[in-house]
Amino acid sequence: MESEGMITMGYWKIRGLFRHIQYVLEYCGAEYNTKYYEAGGPPDFCKKCWLDEKFNLGLDFPNLPYLVEGDFKMTETVPIVFYIAEKYKPELIGETVKDKGTIKMLMNILHDAKMSATMPCYTQDDKSVVMEAAEKSFEPISKFLGDKDFFLGDKPTLPDLYIAELVHLILAVDTEKTFEEKFPNIVALQKRVDELPEIKAFLESDRCPDIPFNNPYAKVNP
User: What would the pLDDT profile of 82-138 be if each residue is shown by its tens digit?
Assistant: First the structure.
């Protein structure tokens, strides 16, 4: 699909789960390009662009997002970010057995929090429902972070990169401006990550397009 050494990422033309992966790609300095699939508009929100290719890409478990690197192909968001980090910047996944275990735990917790905030966007047209789900998920996450600069201390690891885009989504939904008041340490972490030189350069580049958080059939799409 692409020459060896160049990663191709496939995903909907939304921020969705892909922007989380981009944070890791960019921080690691990995070369990649993007294959976007764009859902149609109402009333049917056609997904033909993806469905026509879904089972013809050689993916063992066809899904979006997907990663293709030479002959290697994989799907599923959390395994993808672990693969990128382990290949390009392994210190992101921990330097001790305990740190590695903690990072894996945090990644599962954060991915669950991402889904708990995203799924109501597709089923409810009430932003307060989204915020209620998000804030419930973030209570133990905020407690774990405490007053540390990053989840494991003074330098970023995979969960820090992963959480930043989720906070962007929540702040975009939070028209009542309650999230930062309740979780100032989480918002401070997000801002700290966005100021990392690699991430700051990405956010200011054309690799970070101004596209919606969710697909067009979402009921909440800030």
Answer: 999 999 999 999 999 999 999 999 999 999 999 999 999 999 999 999 999 999 999
Cα dist from 192 to 14, 65, 94, 160, 164, whole Å:
24, 26, 19, 9, 9
Fold of the domain built from segment(s) 91-196: Glutathione S-transferase Yfyf (Class Pi); Chain A, domain 2 (1.20.1050)
* Maximum Cα interatomic distance, the chain, rounded to a whole number of Å: 52
Q: What is the pTM of this model?
A: 0.94
Q: For 174, left (φ over 0), alpha (ψ -120 to 50), or beta?
A: beta
DSSP letters for 93-126: G-SSHHHHHHHHHHHHHHHHHHHHHHHHHHH-S-
CATH number for region 7-90: 1.20.1050.130
Within a 10 A sphere around the Cβ of 102, how many other Cβ atoms? 17
Asked if 110 and 158 touch (Cβ cutoff 8 Å), the reply is no
